[in-house]
From TrEMBL:
Family per similarity comment: Belongs to the binding-protein-dependent transport system permease family. CysTW subfamily.
Gene3D superfamilies with a match to the protein in the record: MetI-like (1.10.3720.10)
Source organism (scientific name): Mycoplana dimorpha
Protein name, as recorded: Putative spermidine/putrescine transport system permease protein
Taxonomic superkingdom: Bacteria
Subcellular location: Cell membrane
Membrane protein topology class: Multi-pass membrane protein
């Protein structure tokens, strides 16, 4: 009887421990999401309609989604490639231990560095009067902006996003590379396999679910980013988060319900990316066990 009472008390304590998180998730994630989904099928006066969903297929909104997808895809692929080689260098490249701890610490900070501070940092660095732009012009006579480069453009936003995409890739992929067993490499060498054959036939097939899953996570991470894009480009680059922000605030057509529909479309895209990431992550973990 006492044992049962002790177990019940522990259960209550455990539930009390996660109660703040559950309350936070309910108030700031679940209920707002349900509110957006419901609002996407209502008119401003509360009447049920499919017009908001149909309006998502208008040329201007489809163009905004396409630009967002291209920026997210470019930054996620760039972040995945560069992040993979950085993670490989600190795990398998034989770099001193101090580089690993320093890079992982920096990655933990940089992966969360976004919004207005990140936009200001890139304007101060790569803007028309930024530090790097001025140094290139004054020291070697190279005018970066004469090449057609513009920070307030698709390429500029992609490069800016990669600042937090690369460290996120490093943080997520480093444990996967740590899980690669030394015995696999030794066995391949004993059988006469070259380094390229080891990576092509053993390492990459095992790491592929982690690589693809993390790339999808980076895609979702970039697709939902709004503060950095808005602070950097304003309304000059018509991506979905900026269009959504303008719709809900009432700057365009004064139809917040269309904004809810835009948010629903973003939820569907990022949700699919995250579901695929979780599935691929589970496959990768089974391989590495």
């Amino acid at each position: 009887m006492k044992r049962t009472a002790l177990i019940d008390r522990r259960t209550v304590v455990d539930w009390l421990g996660i109660a703040p998180f559950m309350l936070f998730a309910l108030l700031f994630l679940i209920l707002p999401t349900l509110y957006l989904v419901t609002g996407a099928f209502l008119t401003p006066d509360g009447t049920f309609t499919f017009k908001n969903i149909a309006d998502l297929f208008s040329p201007s909104i489809l163009a905004a989604y396409w630009i967002s997808i291209k920026v997210s895809l470019a930054s996620s692929l760039g972040g995945a490639v560069i992040g993979f080689f950085l993670a490989w260098a600190i795990v398998m490249g034989g770099l001193p231990r101090v580089f690993r701890s320093g890079l992982l610490t920096f990655s933990g900070v940089a992966s969360n560095f976004a919004g207005v501070p990140l936009a200001f940092a890139f304007i101060a660095t790569l803007g028309r009067t930024g530090l790097v732009t001025v140094l290139l012009r004054d020291l070697i006579g190279f005018n970066l902006y004469s090449t057609g480069f513009n920070l307030l453009s698709f390429l500029g936003l992609t490069i800016t996003y990669m600042f937090f995409q690369i460290p996120l890739m490093v943080l997520i992929l480093t444990p996967a590379l740590d899980g690669m067993k030394r015995e696999w490499r030794e066995a391949s060498e004993i059988l006469g396999a070259s380094t390229w054959q080891y990576w092509r036939m053993i390492a990459l097939p095992i790491l592929w679910p982690s690589l693809l899953g993390t790339t999808l996570l980076l895609f979702a991470n970039a697709f939902g980013a709004v503060a950095t894009a808005y602070a950097l480009t304003g309304s000059s680059l018509n991506i979905v988060p900026i269009l959504l922000f303008a719709q809900i605030r009432g700057d365009v057509l004064h139809n917040p319900n269309l904004g809810y529909a835009l948010a629903l479309g973003m939820i569907v895209i990022t949700g699919l990316s995250n579901v695929l990431y979780i599935w691929l992550r589970s496959r990768a973990e089974r391989w590495q066990k």
